[in-house]
Design a protein that fits this description.
Elements (H helix, E strand, L loop, with lengths): L2 H15 L6 E5 L5 H9 L4 E4 L2 H10 L5 E4 L8 H4 L5 E5 L2 H10 L4 E7 L15 H7 L6 E8 L7 H21 L8 E3 L6 H6 L4 E4 L1 H4 L1
Parallel strand pairs: 1-2, 1-8, 2-3, 3-4, 4-5, 5-6, 6-7
The structure holds pyridoxal-5'-phosphate (PLP).
Pyridoxal-5'-phosphate binds next to strand 8.
Amino acid sequence: MSISDNVRQVQSIMSAHERETKPTLIAVTKSVGVDVANALYVEGIRDFGENRPDSLLEKVGVMPTDARFHFIGTLQTRKVRQIIDHVAAIHSLDRLSLASEIDKRANRVVDCFVQVNTSGEDSKHGLEIEEVIPFIENCKQYSHIRIIGLMTMAPLTEEESILRDTFRRLRVARDEVMAKAYEHAPCTELSMGMSNDYPIAIEEGASFVRIGTVLVQ
Ligand SMILES: *Cc1c(COP(=O)(O)O)cnc(C)c1O
């Protein structure tokens, strides 16, 4: 299939599973070059996900200026400075030292998602669900950080009940934060759903899906 077919297929599956909100499709281009990213742009994609500063900056430098770049991977504190002016959002805020560095380097308010480890796997990054509210309260001291939502990576499984349960737990956690009505953390968004599981994530309320493999293969 072509990139064009891939985009159409993903968009039609997204529509079929949509509930109240229409999620934003972030095309994860971490494993492909500028040529493929540009082909996705031509198909109407404007949101791109990258997990390495070098790969993000390479694309920022050559793609049209209305392309938005989302940082979706583990972000080393020392790399914040390189990317901070070029990201629409950081989906992987998972520690105070990172929040502090973003706050220090940013000249504007930066939209961030708190990454949550919903799988219980040690290898997955992110906060435990019960750490989310204390962490967000701690972030209040950083005036350049706005927490717009929660992000997770579901466990790699085909079992629908496990995936659905994971996404529901993230939604419940999001609702709890939202109910606090923190000024610095409106937390209205849910970044969840990848190639393997995005239809379920959308049914469970995803507002951003991060899709790589099925778009670029
Ligand atoms: C690679 C990656 C994705 C996309 O995964 P696919 O399975 O290729 O769709 C989404 N989110 C994060 C954080 C990733 O690292």
